[in-house]
Give the backbone structure.
Amino acid sequence: MLSKKTPLFLFYGAVLVSILGLLKLYHDFHVPFTRTGLKNILGFYAFLIVLMIALLRLILSHLVKKTATRFLIWTLFCALMVSLVIAETGLRLFAKNATYTESQSGFYLSKIHNEEDTLNIIYPSYRPVLETSEFSYPRIANSDGFRDLPFVPNMDSSKTLIQTYGDSFTEGDGTCMDSSYPSALRHILAADGRNNILIQNMGICGNDPGFYEIQLRNRGLKQHPQLLVMTYSSFDFTFDFFCRGGLSRFGTYPMIGLQYPRWEILYAYSYIFRLIVKAVSDRDPSTYFMNAASVLKRQNELKSEWNKVFVRLNDMAKRHKIKIFLIKKPEGSEVINRQYMYDFSFFEKELDTLSQIRRYDLLPYYLETEQWNEKNTGSYYWKKDGHHNSKGYAVMAKGVFKGLKEAYPEIFH
């Protein structure tokens, strides 16, 4: 027989186990690249509900003696729990205030959870697939860690090796390896009889220009390239670079960038909490839990760091007698709006003083040459994901090819 104290002892145990479980989830949430998926969410709510039930049972046993009052409190508590569960489930089903990774891949990923070097190559531990609700393509890396054909160092002075650096739009997220823009560019060159021009795709999903120097130094130079094609975009500066910071990001391990508030874990686990944050706070989750003034201040502080990235790349290219072709890449929404969401004049004025860098803007090419507009632009992108489909990457390659011929006619003589 259990003693009269046994039930309370069990509830004390439930409180302890629940607290330890929640602390474990809190710890795991802050491990770099932790994905908060369905298993984590179910665990969070299970621990939370058990904790609340146990605490309520202990409080009532000490403070409330009347059975009728206890019954009323338990009834109200159960009604509240059921209402919250229904509300949370409904918000999740309709994806109200869902983040990009949640809508595409079904998990929450804090943007600050990046380790040093993780975006330089495709590591063996990465999932060998690029997958969303709209597509699934293999992500198999070559021996150098990139989604491309095997790399062969260029030892033939009669040939020009072009390396492409960039993010998911360069790696080719949203299509197979053979339809990425560098692969499509390779096909265009072959069809044009340019067998003396070689292509190596060094794009990595999630990259930003802050990683280009370390990629070039550790991976690219040993292949003996003559020309580097690098991309940049509004998203690079206002999101990736904004979160990670400048080259100082490499001063710590793991890499420490913009720090989100400690209550971000509640935002990750609860859609109801997201509605509360949106209603009572000016710290907008879509702008890194910062208000508009703080966002503007950080952007202005990072402008010199952004410029420094390309000054250093220019210096490295000059030492190794390499040219850099810098491509300004628009997002689909920017094509539709016919303008970029961020003004890069602070950067592009300095670019014109760097001897090894020439630049090219894809937006005029899309609008004027390809005649993209509000009605047809969507056919070149995945509707939900936002990356190019194979059709879009083919056009991107045509634009880069046109830019290369204009900027470096000596290669195409």
Remarks:
- The two ends are 95 Å apart (CA to CA).
- The chain has a mean pLDDT of 91.
- Strands lie at 129-131, 136-138, 160-165, 197-201, 227-232, 323-328, 357-361.
